[in-house]
Automatic annotation (TrEMBL):
<feature type="transmembrane region" description="Helical">
    <location>
        <begin position="20"/>
        <end position="40"/>
    </location>
</feature>
<feature type="transmembrane region" description="Helical">
    <location>
        <begin position="253"/>
        <end position="273"/>
    </location>
</feature>
<dbReference type="Pfam" id="PF01594">
    <property type="entry name" value="AI-2E_transport"/>
</dbReference>
<keyword id="KW-1133">Transmembrane helix</keyword>
<feature type="compositionally biased region" description="Pro residues">
    <location>
        <begin position="396"/>
        <end position="405"/>
    </location>
</feature>
<protein>
    <submittedName>
        <fullName>Putative PurR-regulated permease PerM</fullName>
    </submittedName>
</protein>
<keyword id="KW-0813">Transport</keyword>
<feature type="transmembrane region" description="Helical">
    <location>
        <begin position="222"/>
        <end position="247"/>
    </location>
</feature>
<dbReference type="GO" id="GO:0005886">
    <property type="term" value="C:plasma membrane"/>
</dbReference>
<keyword id="KW-1003">Cell membrane</keyword>
<keyword id="KW-0472">Membrane</keyword>
<dbReference type="GO" id="GO:0055085">
    <property type="term" value="P:transmembrane transport"/>
</dbReference>
<feature type="transmembrane region" description="Helical">
    <location>
        <begin position="156"/>
        <end position="180"/>
    </location>
</feature>
<feature type="transmembrane region" description="Helical">
    <location>
        <begin position="76"/>
        <end position="96"/>
    </location>
</feature>
<feature type="compositionally biased region" description="Basic and acidic residues">
    <location>
        <begin position="406"/>
        <end position="415"/>
    </location>
</feature>
<feature type="compositionally biased region" description="Pro residues">
    <location>
        <begin position="374"/>
        <end position="388"/>
    </location>
</feature>
<dbReference type="InterPro" id="IPR002549">
    <property type="entry name" value="AI-2E-like"/>
</dbReference>
Length: 415
């Protein structure tokens, strides 16, 4: 028997140099965390502006890239921005006051619209729902709902009233958009030279994929939103729907936040407004228009406009919009889908897809395991058992061993 060893004693010696290195690392990590918290807390607005400028420059890239073949890139970017600003200015000059008035009326009458919708459901389906019970189940009284509507309207008007801040933010946004669009290629090369060779390839790939896939997606969504908003506005105007301009823009913009099912989500508000109006058939026609336009968009417009962009599952896009809205409000909801498109395009680029292995049923799997346990022909013999050798393994018994010999092949044993 060997004598058991006693417990081993391990001594850890810390030199002053190691202590100072660990302390410096801890202080550095704490400083980085505090700096990141300071930047996100105090410079969060600027970060949002930079991200918005980045995605708007990506959306401008198809037009800027085509114009840059015939003129300088800076002039091409400036021309695209001026054209967009002129179109926006003409739209606001023609419909700005009407749009603000309709939005204010729609927000103010939202509690009455909900009450009328509940009354219409009770009349058509024989139910007895009460708006007070629904609001109480949501911990919301009619007075609170009206107050929330007034608060939303007041916030909108207050946001429009801060003219100085809006001008400063708009100027910053336009400057960043122009810089990122005009000097995008030089910025790409300058940033790549700051990295080692292996990281340069990754960075350039990420930049190019974001430029092609995400830029194409944002550009396609803007075009589809413009077409949807214009068509819906004309249809609602012809139908005589209340707040036709605001509801048309709502339908066009919200429909493109969530692909495929976004139109059905956006058309819900015009349908409710039409059903509670003096002519309820307007709501039914609006519902039919939403279904018809979605089919036309899926079969004709969507494949041609967004053929090269990344494809996003509706569930993923909707979850991204909800997450972005909960984190950053309306701006987060607008930027959620482009961010998801960029992430999916990077996953498609860097993550290799493997072949799908078909599942094997349990019976076939057991048979396969049994066959795999048998030795292959010509392979090594199976290991010998621990017990006495068998007759089949050792061959016929030796003469004089007292055991009968097995009969020869082809001859019958004597009776």
């Amino acid at each position: 028997m060997t004598q058991q060893e006693g417990p081993r004693v391990v001594r850890v010696l810390l030199s002053p140099a190691n202590v100072w290195r660990v302390a410096f690392a801890v202080v550095a990590v704490a400083a980085v965390v505090l700096f990141a918290r300071f930047v996100l807390a105090d410079a969060g607005g600027l970060i949002v502006v930079v991200v918005m400028a980045w995605f708007i420059s990506l959306a401008m890239e198809p037009a800027v890239g085509r114009l840059a073949r015939h003129m300088r890139r800076g002039a091409a970017a400036l021309l695209v921005m001026v054209a967009f600003l002129l179109v926006s200015a003409v739209f606001l000059y023609l419909f700005g006051s009407l749009l603000a008035e309709q939005v204010a009326v729609l927000v103010r009458e939202l509690p009455d619209i909900l009450t009328g919708a509940v009354a219409w459901v009770n009349e058509r389906f024989g139910t007895n729902y009460q708006i007070a019970d629904i609001l109480s189940s949501l911990n919301l009284t009619p007075q609170q709902a009206a107050q929330y509507a007034q608060d939303v309207l007041g916030n909108v008007l207050g946001l429009l009233g801060t003219l100085t801040g809006a001008i400063v933010n708009l100027f910053t946004l336009l400057l960043l958009i122009f810089y990122l669009s005009a000097d995008g290629p030089r910025l790409r090369v300058w940033l790549a030279r700051l990295m080692p060779a292996n990281l340069q390839r990754v960075f350039l790939t990420v930049w190019d994929v974001s430029l092609v896939k995400t830029g194409g997606y944002v550009w396609a969504r803007l075009i589809l939103a413009t077409v949807n908003a214009a068509a819906s506005t004309v249809v609602f105007l012809v139908l005589g729907m209340p707040s036709w301009l605001a509801l048309g823009l709502w339908t066009g913009l919200v429909a493109q936040l969530v692909p495929t099912i976004g139109t059905y989500i956006a058309i819900a508000l015009p349908v409710v407004v039409g059903l509670v109006s003096p002519r309820p058939w307007i709501g039914l026609v609006a519902l039919g228009w939403g279904v018809l336009y979605q089919q036309v968009e899926n079969l004709t417009l969507e494949p041609r406009i967004s053929g090269r962009s990344v494809d996003i599952h509706p569930g993923v896009a909707f979850a991204g919009v909800i997450l972005g809205a909960s984190l950053f409000g309306a701006v987060g909801a607008l930027l959620a889908v482009p961010v998801v498109a960029m992430l999916l395009s990077l996953i498609d680029t860097f993550v290799a897809r493997q072949d799908l292995v078909q599942a094997v049923p349990a019976g076939q799997a057991a048979a396969a395991d049994h066959h795999s346990a048998a030795p292959p022909p010509g392979g090594p013999p199976p290991p010998e058992p621990d017990g006495p050798p068998s007759r089949a393994a050792d061959g016929p018994p030796a003469p004089g061993s007292g055991e009968p010999a097995p009969p020869e092949r082809g001859r019958r044993p004597p009776g």
